[in-house]
Amino acid sequence: xLSAKMEGTLxxxxxxxxxSSYLYLSMAAYFESRNLPGMAAWMKIQAKEEExxxxxxxxxxxxxxxxxxxxxxxxxxxxxxSPLAAFQxxxxxxxxxxxxxxxxxxxxxxxxxxxxxIFLQWFVTEQIEEEKSADEIAKKxxxxxxxxxxxxxxxxxxxxxxxAPAGGE
Length: 169
Ligand SMILES: [Fe+2]
Ligand SMILES: [Fe+2]
Known about the structure:
Bound molecules: fe (ii) ion
Number of strands: 0
Shape: elongated
Largest sheet: none
Oligomer: single chain
Structural class: mainly alpha
């Protein structure tokens, strides 16, 4: 059984994951408007993954006898100065999410809630990957700067991203 405090915090994280999905979908729309379909496709896959993260919290709360309560999802930004700025924003956002997961894990350990602690391990590992991929893309875009030919190549490269299998990343 989840404590009331843990139930509330897990519901908060469910909301944060759905917000992440909404943010990346907003970035997909931005990239479509900039005629960068590869980057848009990358963001759509990212948005789907975040939705899946949210569902992991949804199912975990239910499995532990808790109650899922959906709150309002904040409206994401809709414009970025450049593709680089958008991917830098992804990196910054993922770092923030890592902090939320770390705080949750700390709370689980303080409560002696081993099941939640173990459940969160998957997210701890996932966040390493999330931060790394956003940082790598941002660094490449920094090197590319304003060279359109290279930007188009990068767009093609990111467009080749495959969706993770369900229950995977
Ligand atoms: Fe996530
Ligand atoms: Fe993420």
